Amino acid sequence: MKIEQFEDKGLSHYSYAILSECENTIVLIDPSRDVKPYLSFAKEHEATIIGVIETHPHADFVSGHLELQQVTGAVIYCSKLLGAEYPHQTFDDGDEIVFGKIKLRALNTPGHSPDSISIVLEHDGQDKAVFTGDTLFIGDCGRPDLREQAGNLTAKREELAKQMYHSLREKLLVLDDAIWVYPAHGAGTLCGKAQSDANRSTIGAERAGNWSLLKMSETQFVQALLADQPFIPKYFAYDVALNKHGAMVLNTVLADVPTEKPVKLNVKVFFIDARPEGQFKRGHLPGSINIQDGGKFETWLGSIIAPEEAFYLVAETEDKLKELIGKTAKIGYESFIEAAFVVETGHEKMLPLNINQFNNATEDYTIVDIRNIAEVKADPIFRDAIHIPLYELRERLGELPYNKPIVVHCAGGYRSAAGSSIIANAFGSKTNVFDLGEAIKNFIS
């Protein structure tokens, strides 16, 4: 038997291939949209993919389960509670998948979602591992507030938090301490709030060190779980629905993305300019938002741009553009691309901030802090700053005055590039807008 873990760093996502070496068959768990790594793994081991398990309809990425079924003929397994609209076989408490010397056993573990399942792996008659989806993470558990208005079944966060309390204690903590824990996400995901950097653990280690498994009452657990959860990106509910239906074949939808600059540009459509902030500030097209390519491009694209909202996608090279279109497809946004093309510069510019002048007279500026709420609570930086998180900025621009120059900051410079470009677009010549960028580090004690 072999367990292969695949990692998508941008989305902090883990997926798995379970290989029966005696039978040369594979079952996949929570695959990414790009199915090539799984097909390559199967080819490398001269094995056949016979099954794909979805632990729940994912909110933060689009799964490749339907394409894998179409390409390999594999059976898709998921809970009957999911209400899947694609051909599938239900996989709930008491159901098993047997291949070679491996038995996979379904556990209904609601909490992150009403339709969440975990999968216990038994090899040679002994439990070896559990794949916990978004129920149990390393050091944390899944958030319970994503299914109030999404999916086949909806539930209030308090109700799901109570279900999580019992799923963890009555389904997972009863497993042997030596069993390996393989979650669907690691540190950096917005599906939880306190994950470890580790990519696997054991039930025993989590029993000892995971806050969500410590002895406490249901009421204490619910209060702790609901407190300080991260924001919910705009695209999450859209991806739940898309995964419930099943996404189209990736190469097919990517081929439909227009990759030539239109003769006439739609002035009502934003440009998502993914070039480095230095290039962007020296010259960009009107209506551009500077979401730089990087580790969290997909998350911020889906937090700033709403589902069904058309946008242009621009980058500095053809290779980078192709990569960005692929990242856009990971959250199901490829069909919203009006056109994708290379941009070297533009007539719009953003002036650099005179740091010394700002430092000597911060009261002469309107300072906009676009960090998340928890960050501001933990470390307020400028006393009179206006706090609007980046993910709410477009909707709350009317709260900003323009009687002074505006300085935008985050915690390190990445988000402030996007935030300052959003404000500059809206305010035009009303006032100057500056990005404090990495210089914010000089003001953090």
Structural description of this entry:
The protein has 445 residues and is an alpha/beta fold. It has helices at residues 36-44, 65-72, 157-172, 203-209, 218-226, 236-245, 250-255, 277-282, 297-304, 318-330, 355-360, 373-378, 414-427; strands at 2-8, 13-20, 25-29, 48-53, 75-78, 89-90, 96-99, 102-108, 117-123, 126-133, 180-183, 201-202, 270-273, 288-289, 311-315, 337-342, 366-369, 386-387, 406-409, 433-435. The chain has a 6-stranded mixed sheet, with helices on one face. Strands 7-8-9-10-11-12 form a 6-stranded mixed sheet. Helix 3 (157-172) crosses helix 5. The longest helix is centred in the middle third of the chain and has 16 residues, at 157-172.
In short:
This is MBL fold metallo-hydrolase. InterPro entries: Metallo-B-lactamas, Mito_Persulfide_Diox, POD-like_MBL-fold, Rhodanese-like_dom, Rhodanese-like_dom_sf, RibonucZ/Hydroxyglut_hydro. This protein is of the alpha/beta class and 445 residues long.
Give the SSE layout.
Elements (H helix, E strand, L loop, with lengths): L1 E7 L4 E8 L4 E5 L6 H9 L3 E6 L11 H8 L2 E4 L10 E2 L5 E4 L2 E7 L8 E7 L2 E8 L23 H16 L7 E4 L17 E2 H7 L8 H9 L9 H10 L4 H6 L14 E4 L3 H6 L5 E2 L7 H8 L6 E5 L2 H13 L6 E6 L12 H6 L5 E4 L3 H6 L7 E2 L18 E4 L4 H14 L5 E3 L10
Helix pairs in contact: 3-5
Organism: Mucilaginibacter achroorhodeus
Protein name: MBL fold metallo-hydrolase
GO molecular function, one term: hydrolase activity
